[in-house]
Every structure is written in structure tokens, then in C-alpha cells.
Specification:
Structural class: alpha/beta
Radius of gyration: 28 Å
Number of strands: 19
Mean pLDDT: 89
Strand order of the largest sheet: 9-8-10-11-13-12-17
Low-confidence stretches: none
Strand content: 5-15%
Number of helices: 26
Distance between the termini: 79 Å
Shape: globular
Length: 640
């Protein structure tokens, strides 16, 4: 029986003898390795790095009365294990199982949902303000990774917290990594601080000498003045700028994030202080698992592997590449012929496929860190000078830059290309990562072109078109999935005329207007309907905006019914857009929309979720039948 089996809540951690805490850390780390080595696609490295920190936090603070606010959630598996969810850990990221990130409805210890970076401090400041308004007494502790400090939201929160002088503790978990290695001035600053442990030793020695001196009369005042100046001098000597203290925080650290006694002692000291406090903790991503420590990028998330050697247990199935890889290869090839093309990403080099561009053309590659709004406005600045920037960001993360898209790019009609990876359902990462809203939020942006390829070749051809157009922003969305088949060489791909759709099958009964990933299922649905005597047209609506006016006129009103199919929200999405157009011009045509529902879709395998939502050939055929049946009912005159 593992020591972890006796831990059902943080109260058990607090009751454990101090000499057993090291063994508990070993048990937590081993549990994570055991489960994830047998579980496909779970987060790994960050969780191994926060084992001791999590134990120390729950040991020192009276959770859930004291509120522990985690950032993102990649690093919160130890937290789940210590808060009664150890037995369910094998279900994580599976449909109906534990959420991949933090969920308020999953546990009372998850005090704030966390799936996007840099939210913890803002949320914690709000909780602390609510506590003070209500006259209550408890601690609020925000945990944030150093990668999240590249996000402006973190500084807005630090600035506000330091100004208000409210009781708040921020724990900075510094492992020098986001998914990829961190970048930017803040990373350099923290790297300097990592080498500054001597600072606290010197500072304490200065204090000891000063406190031993007399405290009377003029001499006492001189000593007090000297104490302040000496403290500032020590700070400036060993920790240049002391950014956090200048923002109004009492800074403590750096502290070894894997030394449990030191962590606990530091947090106990911090708990006795008042006002804004920041504890700088140094941790190692992948701690305790040698391959994870050596290759932190690869082991950020892990598939099935041998827990002793780290060798993968599931051989690659071969087959076609992912849309992400096809995009990365095509962008790199196209950029070689277009010296004005650059690539921009927000701490997601490998996730967006732009690592291929980075290796081939490093001087034209920009990783701006977790700073999506900056990425977009930075691209706008480049575009004003004749550069063609490609901003590669997950659909769900681009939401954070909406004002920059509208104000800085679209309003100025700048030719910025947006590559939206993970558009549609992201699978096991769940609702925080599903790209459900991009069609809806981009359709409302004036002058925005939106395209969605049905396959790899169309992705490459549309990307080429986007790079060569210079009359405003162009968004290209594609899923987290493998392409149906690998594309032919770029030179063999015919050009795509701007704004045109593709009629793949002609039929008189109903038109299936499909976008991107839904084109192939729509074709298969048409075959199912044909067996029943229903004649369906299938249109590849590769341009979501602008609509293909010529194709619409060709189809309607000759075809009396239209079903739109998209892997995006039906609320204000492509279906709503095209149905409004059809309704205005051909009011006799019956229309319906099929896509993601007006609710957050839970986590699970992508194919499993698509099936549940009816975004399969069978589901599309069923919706088409229902539309035709309702049309017949509406068309039948009532008896006199």
C-alpha cells in the first residue's frame, strides 16, 4: 500500500509526521509516472516539477478555507492527487473522467477554473477583495509559472495588487519553460534571479549587524536610515531592479522547489506577513524522471511509454501527417520563395508547427511568449512596413487578442495572415481548448477573409493564396487531426480563385453546404441519402467569408432546402451567416444549421465527441432528413 493511499484530503497531509513528507512526495511522483505511462496524451513534465510545492502549500495553508488559485492547470495533477482524486487519475482527459485542467464543479479545492495562462493572480486579487468586503479572514494564494509572466494580464494583476496593498500571496513557480523554453526580457531577468540566492544571505547579515546596534537618539535615526539604504543597495547589487518589490510586493527567494523543509519554512514565514508577498520557487520540469529532465519539450505531454526507459510503447501508425505538420512544412517552403514572409507564434512553436520554420529561417521567426495580443499588434506593425506576417496561434488562444485583430489589423486593412490551429474540437484538452468560436468571432470583423480547407492540398493552396494577397487580413482555420492524405508537391497544386466554393456533388433535393472538416462527412452523408432516393448537392464552402455569390445563385432557388454543416458554434457562425443571405434572397428555401451546440462541449476523444454531436455522415444525413420532413410539413396546405 502506497502512502498516497492514506491521503484523502489536504487535512491528511497536514496530519502527516514531517519525516514522512519526503516519502509522500516520492509516492505522488510515482503515481503520476505510473498512470501517465499507461495513459495516452496526458500532461507530464510540469506535474513532476510541482510535487513538493503542492505538498508544501497544502501542508502550510488550511485549504479549502484558504484559497489556492492555480494557473493553467498543467501542473495541478499533484493537487488533484492530494484532494481526493487519486483513484480517478487514470480517467483524466477521457470522456466522463477527470478534467484535464481545473474545474470548480469537480472539487471544492479547485477554486477557479484554469485552462488559459496568466489568470491566477487576477482571480486571486478578486477573491482577496471579496474577502475584505465581507470582513472575512483567510489567505489567498496564487500560483503562476514563469512562462505565464510573458502575458500582460499577469502584470496588470501584479500592478493592481501592489497598489492596493491587499493581503495576497503569489507563488512564482520558475522552471524556465512554457511548453517550449521561455523567451524575452522577463525570462532573462528571472534567470539572473536564479543565481541570486546569495542576496538573501547578504541581506540577512546586514540586518543582523544593524539590529545589534543601539537604537537611541541621533545615532539610532542614522542607523535606521542606513538600514534602508543598505537594504536597497543589496537588492540593487544582487537582484537588478527588484521588479516585484518595485511593484509593491515583498519578495522572498529564490527557494529550492524540491527542498520540502525549506519550502515549508519559507511558506510559514510568508503566512505570518501581511500585504502583497511573492515567493520565487525554482523547480525542474520533469523532476525525478531522467528523460523528462533532459528533454522538457517532448515530455511536456506524454503518450504511452515504458516508465523505466522512457521508450514509447505505441509505435507510430505511419499514415498521413497532421494538419499542423502540413502547415509548418508548407509555410517554410513558401517563405523560401517569399523573403518578406515571417512567422510569429505565442510560446507554441511545436504546437503550431512553426518550429520547422524556426529551424529553416530563424532570422524571420518570432516567438513572443504567452502574449497573444502583442503577437497580433506586433504583426500589424510589421505589415505596415511591407512584411507579410503569419500569426500561428490556437483558435481558442486567439480569442485573447480580439481587440487587436479588430482595431490594429482589420481597421487598418493590414495584410496579416492568421493560422488558426486546433479550430473545432481539440479532443481531450476539453472546453478550454476547443476552437468553437473562431468562425463566429471572426465573421463579425469587417474586411476579414476566412477560409477552411477540406484537406491537405487545399490547406497548402489556401495558404499560398493568403500570402500573396495584400488587401486585408486573411484567417485560415484547420483542426487538430491528421489530413485525409498527404499533399502533392506544391508546384503541382492548382491555384484557388479567391472567394470560390467547390461543387462536389449535384442534386436537386437538398444542398449540404459544408465547411472544412465537414466536407468529407457531408459527401458520405449524400451517399447514404442517395440510397434512400434523396438527391443531395454537396458544396465545399472553403471560403466562409466572403460567400460565393455565384454558387449560391446556381443552387437556389432550384434546390429547395439547404443544410449548413460546420465544426464551429451554430450561434452566429457560418450557418447563421449563409442562412440569413438565403432567407433574404430566396425566402422559399428551407434552411437549417448543424454544428457545435450552444453549450461548452466536454473533453474526450475528438472522434467520440463528433459522433455524440452528430457531426458524422450518419448524423448529417439524419439532420438532412429532418429538414426535408419539416419542409414537406410546411409545404402541405392545411385542409379546408
Amino acid at each position: 500500500m502506497s502512502l498516497l493511499d492514506s491521503i484523502h484530503s489536504p487535512a491528511d497531509v497536514r496530519a502527516l509526521p514531517a519525516e514522512q513528507l519526503g516519502a509522500l512526495a516520492d509516492a505522488v511522483r510515482q503515481r503520476i509516472v505510473d498512470v501517465i505511462s499507461q495513459h495516452q496524451g496526458a500532461h507530464f513534465g510540469s506535474n513532476l516539477g510541482t510535487v513538493e510545492l503542492t505538498i508544501a502549500l497544502h501542508r502550510v495553508f488550511a485549504t479549502p478555507r484558504d484559497l489556492l488559485v492555480w494557473d493553467v492547470g498543467h501542473q495541478a495533477y499533484p493537487h488533484k492527487l492530494l484532494t481526493g482524486r487519486s483513484e480517478r487519475l487514470p480517467s483524466i482527459r477521457q470522456k466522463g473522467g477527470l478534467a484535464p485542467f481545473l474545474r470548480r464543479d469537480e472539487s471544492e479545492y479547485d477554486v477557479f477554473g484554469a485552462g488559459h495562462a496568466a489568470t491566477s493572480i487576477s482571480a486571486a486579487v478578486g477573491m482577496a477583495a471579496a474577502r475584505d468586503l465581507k470582513g472575512e479572514d483567510f489567505e489567498v494564494i496564487a500560483v503562476i509559472g514563469d512562462g505565464s509572466l510573458t502575458c500582460g494580464l499577469a502584470y496588470e494583476a501584479l500592478n493592481n495588487a501592489g497598489h492596493t496593498d491587499r493581503d495576497l500571496i503569489v507563488v512564482l513557480n520558475d522552471n524556465q519553460m512554457s511548453i517550449s523554453p521561455n523567451v524575452g526580457a522577463i525570462h532573462k531577468y528571472l534567470t539572473t534571479m536564479r543565481g541570486s540566492r546569495v542576496y538573501e544571505k547578504v541581506r540577512e547579515e546586514v540586518k543582523r549587524v544593524i539590529h545589534a546596534a543601539p537604537r537611541i537618539g541621533t545615532l539610532g535615526r542614522m542607523i535606521e536610515e542606513f538600514a534602508v539604504r543598505a537594504d536597497d543597495a543589496v537588492k540593487n547589487m544582487f537582484v537588478p531592479g527588484m521588479l516585484f518589490e518595485e511593484l509593491g510586493f515583498r519578495y522572498l527567494g529564490p527557494v529550492d522547489g524540491h527542498d520540502l523543509p525549506q519550502l515549508i519554512a519559507t511558506l510559514e514565514d510568508v503566512k505570518r506577513m501581511r500585504g502583497p508577498r511573492l515567493v520565487h520557487v525554482l523547480s525542474t520540469k520533469g523532476k525525478g524522471f531522467a528523460p523528462g529532465e533532459e528533454d522538457k519539450v517532448t515530455w511536456h505531454a506524454a503518450g504511452l511509454f515504458d516508465k523505466t526507459t522512457g521508450e514509447p510503447l505505441k509505435a507510430s501508425a505511419g499514415g498521413p501527417p497532421s494538419y499542423t505538420k502540413v502547415f509548418g512544412q508548407a509555410l517554410t517552403e513558401l517563405a523560401r520563395e517569399r523573403p518578406q514572409v515571417v512567422a510569429i507564434t505565442a510560446a507554441m512553436c511545436t504546437g503550431t508547427g512553426t518550429d520547422l520554420f524556426q529551424k529553416a529561417l530563424p532570422e524571420r521567426f518570432f516567438d513572443v511568449g504567452i502574449a497573444e495580443s502583442h503577437a497580433v499588434t506586433f504583426a500589424a506593425g510589421l505589415a505596415t512596413q511591407g512584411i507579410v506576417p503569419v500569426v500561428a496561434i490556437y483558435s481558442t488562444f486567439l480569442q485573447r487578442a480580439y481587440d487587436s485583430i479588430v482595431h490594429d489589423v482589420a481597421l487598418q486593412e493590414l495584410p496579416v495572415v492568421f493560422a488558426l490551429d486546433r479550430a473545432g474540437l481539440a479532443g481531450a484538452d476539453g472546453p478550454t481548448h476547443h476552437g468553437a468560436l473562431d468562425l463566429a468571432y471572426l465573421l463579425s470583423v469587417q474586411g476579414m477573409t476566412i477560409a477552411a480547407p477540406k484537406d491537405a492540398e487545399e490547406l497548402v493552396a489556401l495558404l499560398r493564396l493568403a500570402l500573396d494577397r495584400r488587401d486585408g487580413p486573411f484567417a485560415l482555420r484547420y483542426p487538430r487531426a491528421n489530413v485525409p492524405a498527404a499533399p502533392r508537391p506544391l508546384a503541382e497544386l492548382p491555384p484557388i480563385a479567391y472567394g470560390t466554393w467547390e461543387l462536389l456533388r449535384e442534386g436537386a433535393d437538398v444542398a449540404l453546404l459544408a465547411v472544412g472538416t465537414m466536407v468529407q462527412p457531408a459527401l458520405q452523408a449524400a451517399e447514404l441519402l442517395a440510397r434512400e432516393g434523396v438527391d443531395a448537392s454537396v458544396v465545399n464552402c472553403r471560403f466562409v467569408k466572403p460567400l460565393d455569390e455565384a454558387m449560391l445563385e446556381r443552387l437556389f432557388p432550384a434546390v429547395g432546402a439547404a443544410l449548413t454543416v460546420e465544426e464551429g458554434t451554430v450561434v452566429n457562425g457560418f450557418g447563421a451567416y449563409v442562412r440569413a443571405c438565403i432567407g433574404e434572397r430566396w425566402p422559399g428555401v428551407h434552411t437549417a444549421s448543424h454544428g457545435l451546440p450552444d453549450r461548452f462541449v466536454e473533453h474526450g476523444e475528438r472522434a467520440e465527441l463528433l459522433a455524440d454531436l452528430g457531426l458524422t455522415p450518419e448524423g448529417i444525413a439524419a439532420r438532412a432528413r429532418a429538414l426535408l420532413a419539416s419542409r414537406m410539413l410546411l409545404s402541405t396546405p392545411e385542409p379546408v
